[in-house]
Design goal:
Elements (H helix, E strand, L loop, with lengths): L1 H6 L4 H11 L9 H9 L9 H18 L17 H19 L1
Helix pairs in contact: 2-4, 3-4
InterPro entries: Cohesin_Scc3/SA (IPR039662), HEAT_SCC3-SA (IPR056396)
Protein name: Cohesin subunit SCC3/SA HEAT-repeats domain-containing protein
Pfam families: HEAT_SCC3-SA
């Protein structure tokens, strides 16, 4: 799992999507004791980089969220939507139609 997350470690949102996508398929992600022992081990079998530690914390956080019934990745993110010209026209016509319908 750490090998996979290294590829996406520059983007925490993307890392969250990766963790969420493979959550059900990888039992190691649900093994809190293993993750915590890897984080606390002073003489690890394999040398962990700072980024590996960060990714382990991300996995542990995701595991805790799942345990209490929260979603790892929200249904929508707060990124600004960008529309091309035809999409802007369609959105504005829907908005003006709904405003006009409310006033009648």
């Amino acid at each position: 799992m750490l090998h996979i997350l290294r590829e996406f470690s520059d983007d925490p949102v993307l890392s969250s999507y990766v963790i969420d996508d493979i959550w059900d398929d990888m039992k190691a992600m649900k093994d809190w004791k293993c993750v915590i022992s890897m984080l606390l081990d002073e003489t690890p079998i394999a040398e962990l980089t700072d980024m590996d530690g960060t990714n382990l914390v991300r996995m542990l956080r995701a595991s805790a969220k799942k345990a209490v019934g929260e979603r790892i990745v929200l249904a929508t993110d707060n990124r600004k939507m960008y529309y091309n010209k035809s999409q802007k026209v369609a959105v504005s016509s829907v908005v003006s139609y709904s405003i006009g319908a409310k006033s009648h």
